[in-house]
Amino acid sequence: MIQTIDAAAFHKMVIHAAAAINAQKQPINDLNVFPVPDGDTGTNMSLTIAAAAAELRKKPSDTVGQAAQTAASALLRGARGNSGVILSLLFRGFAKAIKDRETIDGRDLAIALDFGVAAAYKAVMKPAEGTILTVSRLSASRAAGAAREDAGIEAVLQAAIEEGHIALADTVNQNPVLKKAGVVDAGGKGFLIILQGMLDSLRGEPMPQAEEESRPAEEKADFAAMDAADITFAFDTVFIVRKQREDVDLDPFRAYLNSIGDSLVIGEDDQAFKVHVHTNTPGAALTESQKYGVLELAKIENMRTQAEDLAAGRHVQSTDDLEAVEAELERAPAPPAPAAPEKKFGYVAVCAGQGLEAVFRDLGVDALVGGGQTMNPSTQDILKAVEATPAEIVYVLPNNKNIIMAAQQCVPLCEDKKVVVLPTKTVPQGISAMLCAAPDASEPENTQAMTEGFERVRTSEITYAARDSDFDGFAIHQGDYLALEEHQLFGTDQALDQLLKRLALSDSHQQAEFISIFYGEDVPQEQARQAEAIFTQACPNAEISLLPGGQPVYYYMISAE
């Protein structure tokens, strides 16, 4: 039996463990039902420890303590989902316990596992039994007992795994959600797969190369038994914040997040902290976080729609689906160096649709960023456009409320130019802002003029219902036309013309002097002219303009001033 390990052995153990869970991530996904059936625990844990494995491959260590610190730091930044954050916390506590050790034996391993469990329990606001926390705690407890009998690291790790499997089998009895689905805890199983991978590395077992393709049917959760209506907090929200200072007190932030959600986990190191929380107001959580540092990354997913897709056997949409697109972008040629200033003011706008792009170009926008509803660009996407704009001061028009925060992150990141983000929430607001731009004015005067311009605009949109729902007093059926006014539901109808007539008679359009109708990519010109006729008849005192927007998702975007 192996007694001790050095840094090189620890590197191999983590890399082997990453390969082990990658090979079994889908069976773990199929088990996931707690706290909601979002079905991505295996993927999250695999990607989390893969970040550590990648860092260890390129960064050699002189001691086990140094290697553990490297792994823990990479795990924090690579952590995804509740299970990934807890895994990173287990490794962070582990690393703290052995930070000064050149090699470790079974006694050191037992202490490190205990430190890891303590770190995880401290960070989770409301620890629940029958989870990865339970499995890791009982595994660590058995490791401590085994170390008193045999201080060899192989024997202690084996004992921890054996006790962990007993604890894992009992999770189905500890949690009613697991019992209803007839499965064990997904996170707990993932944790044991990682420990087993580390033990297999010690024993010289071959590294897994591919994901398992078959598994017993009874090991899959019965997602049809889960009800999306049981999900109290809809949005699975994960983000990383770089701290303002090392000793920042996160307790008030923990209390705030706990007041607006559940399943709260916060992991941290000296430079940053990572949050996982389920909430109905992810924007509020992100805004509050900026009191404690600078927001670096964020991921938000709707667990109710994920649950519905799982129950129906459909593919579950996830931010992970963007990876193929991101990989393609990474293969693109490197962007040019930041453009040297050639003028005082420059402009960047976010929009989707050839017609809208042409309008912005005609109004003097220097760079366009593709995006909008359902396809929000990243901070990096916007920053590239800003840097390519040859101006001293660059105005950014996000034109969507979900893009404003990403745009604002460009302000401290852009070193060669001043970035001014105007919080435009719709494309018509962005167009109005550009119409009011004053290129010969001072920066404050130009900002005020553009702000006053977009604040005068009221925006309405016509889209469709993707699913049945009961929202804000409206019984909505899949395929219904929906009218939104200033992002609030105005009404629904199965007849588009009837909905347009009702919208044209609203106060904002009856009082308007100018109305612009931008029709989308799925609207024939003849049909668009019918919409124009409806507004012309209903709003005789307004000047009506019909323009091809070419935008996706929305049949019409309508601005009123």
How would you summarize this macromolecular structure in one to three sentences?
With 561 residues, this protein is α+β, with helices and mostly antiparallel strands. Helix content is 47%, strand content 19%. The longest helix has 22 residues, at 153-174.
Write the layout of secondary structure elements.
Blueprint lengths: L3 E2 L1 H17 L1 H7 L9 H18 L5 H15 L2 H17 L6 E2 H18 L8 H18 L3 H22 L1 H6 L4 H17 L32 E9 L7 H10 E8 L3 E8 L2 H8 L3 E10 H9 L11 H8 L12 E9 L2 H9 L4 E4 L8 H9 L3 E7 L6 H5 L1 H4 L4 E4 L5 H9 L7 H13 L2 E7 L4 E3 L2 E3 L4 E5 L2 E6 L2 H9 L2 H4 L3 E6 L5 H14 L4 E6 L7 E5 L1
Parallel strand pairs: 7-8, 7-9, 9-10, 16-17
Antiparallel strand pairs: 1-2, 3-5, 3-6, 4-5, 11-14, 11-18, 12-13, 14-15, 16-18
How would you portray this structure in words?
This protein is an alpha+beta fold and 561 residues long. The chain has a six-stranded mixed β-sheet with strand order 15-14-11-18-16-17, sandwiched between helices. A four-stranded antiparallel β-sheet has the order 4-5-3-6, sandwiched between helices. The protein has a four-stranded parallel β-sheet with strand order 8-7-9-10, sandwiched between helices. α1 crosses α10 (186-202), α3 packs across α4 and α7 runs antiparallel to α8. The N and C termini lie far apart (79 Å). Mean pLDDT is 84; it is low at 34-39, 211-218 and 222-226.
